[in-house]
Amino acid sequence: MQNRYATLAARVYELDKPVGRSFGDVEFYLERLKGVSGPILEPAVGNGRLLVPLLEAGLDVKGFDASEEMLSYCRAACASRSLSVQLSAQTFEAFSYDERFEAILVPLGSIQLITDHEAALAVLKRFHDHLAPGGRLILDLDTIDGFLDAPHSVRTWKAGDDLLTLTADRIDTDYVAQTTTTSLRYEHWRAGKLVDSEIDLFCLRWWGVAEFGMALQAAGFTGVAACGDYQHGRKPQKGDGIITFEARRA
Q1: 151 and 169 Cβ atoms separated by less than 8 Å
Q2: Around Cβ 82, how many Cβ atoms within 10 Å?
Q3: Is CATH 3.40.50.150 the right assignment for the domain spanning 7-142+207-248?
Q4: Where are the annotated coiled coils located (predicted)?
């Protein structure tokens, strides 16, 4: 099973990207959502890193995630702050809501977890169909550079008496399918002894800027625009790490 965010992966994510940690995106999304009073959806909500600040700002946000482990962190974060939120276990490919949203948010390249091109196009169409007329999709992509750097890395986190490690080795790059596959080994150590470990094959797809713009148009979106590194109004340029797209349902 790939991209599953199981127990250790979810704990590492919580340590590395705790609620409220911003990469420039929290402030960006809050600014872009000014004036939005209707419901907002965050697919792949994870541990609530972005969701919680949006809720605290008074926005009406719902979320879903395929990982129950990640949702447990999100629920705990909301409960500890007395925030009421509707969360559910759903996937990109099959999520469904009766209501229509004023905005759908997909930060930090989560859409790139969908590695099949046709499946990704179908998800974009599902986003479009879940927006109210005039509603906006705001979505981040990691640039291609980040996919091809650092084929091997080791990272560590301390949590009390626990040491968690993540060893990442890229094992495949498919330039035709525009995908990378990385072997992720998570380890939990205590007092020098290995307590638990997980191995996951983590797959991602990269997109060209023009390519993704055309994909949004093919899904029915209008007014497609892109900016680089959370600088609204500035077109993407060489050296940007994040490309953010905005598009509307007519």
Answers
A1: yes
A2: 6
A3: yes
A4: none
pLDDT tens, 129-154?
A: 999 999 999 999 999 998 888 899 99
Q: How far apart are CA 133 and CA 152, in angstroms?
A: 45
DSSP calls for 4-42: ---HHHHHHHHHHS-TT--SSHHHHHHHHTTT--S-EEE
Fold of 145-205: N-terminal domain of TfIIb (2.20.25)
Per-residue pLDDT of 64-97, as tens digits, reads 999 999 999 999 999 999 999 999 999 999 999 9
Within the chain, which residue ranges are assigned CATH 3.40.50.150? Answer: 7-142+207-248
Report how far residue 28's alpha carbon sits from residue 123's, in angstroms, rounded to the nearest whole number. 24
SS3 for the chain is: CECCCCHHHHHHHHHHCCCCCCCCHHHHHHHHCCCCCCCEEECCCCCCCCHHHHHHCCCCEEEEECCHHHHHHHHHHHHHCCCCCCEEECCCCCCCCCCCEEEEEECCCHHHHCCCHHHHHHHHHHHHHCEEEEEEEEEEEECHHHHHCCCEEEEEEEECCEEEEEEEEEEEEECCCCEEEEEEEEEEEECCEEEEEEEEEEEEECCCHHHHHHHHHHCCCEEEEEEECCCCCCCCCCCCCEEEEEEECC
| 136/127 Cα distance (integer angstroms) | 10
